[in-house]
Amino acid sequence: MAKISSPLALLFIILSSIMINHFHVASSKTWCVATLTATNAQLQANINFGCSQGVDCRPIRPGGSCFIPNTLVNHASFVMNSYYQSHGRTNQACSFKNTGTFAATDPSFGKCVYAS
């Protein structure tokens, strides 16, 4: 069996960990967003619920970083994701009575940054 010198082994371990951290294939990041089939009433209820449960809703208010586009689906998605991220990232935390779904692609845009 071939022996590897300690410095070479250390270099291999460091390079391996760097490469593993740069692979996006097995990314564990997920976001919770509103389904496109949710009604306006459901989206508003999700916003009301999330904001009443400690989610910082200032970004979706006028002048906030996520106010534009000023649509219920965008505002609800931001609030739903904030709730999901702050409540254990569980399936239940993204359910919102079956109006939430998971996204594997970061929905952030411009100055509106979704937590991950």
Descriptive account of the structure:
- It is a single chain.
- It contains 3 helices and 2 strands.
- The chain is mainly alpha-helical and 116 residues long.
- Helix 2 runs parallel beside helix 3.
- The longest helix has 17 residues.
- The protein is globular and about 65 Å long.
- About 11% of the residues have low confidence.
- It is a lipid-anchor; GPI-anchor.
Provide the fold topology.
Blueprint: H1 6-22, E1 31-34, H2 40-52, H3 72-86, E2 100-103
How would you concisely characterize the structure shown here?
The protein is mainly α and 116 residues long. It is built from three helices and two strands, in the order H-E-H-H-E.
Structural class: mainly alpha
Intertermini distance? 45 Å
**Strand proportion:** 5-15%
- Find the count of extended strands (DSSP E, 2+ residues): 2
For the largest beta sheet, what order do the strands appear in spatially?
A: 1-2
Range of helix content: 25-40%
Order of helices and strands: HEHHE
Q: Give me the number of helical elements.
A: 3
Describe the sheet with the most strands. Answer: 2 strands, antiparallel
Unreliable sequence segments: 14-26
Which outline best applies?
globular
How many whole angstroms does the radius of gyration measure?
20 Å
- Mean pLDDT, nearest integer? 86
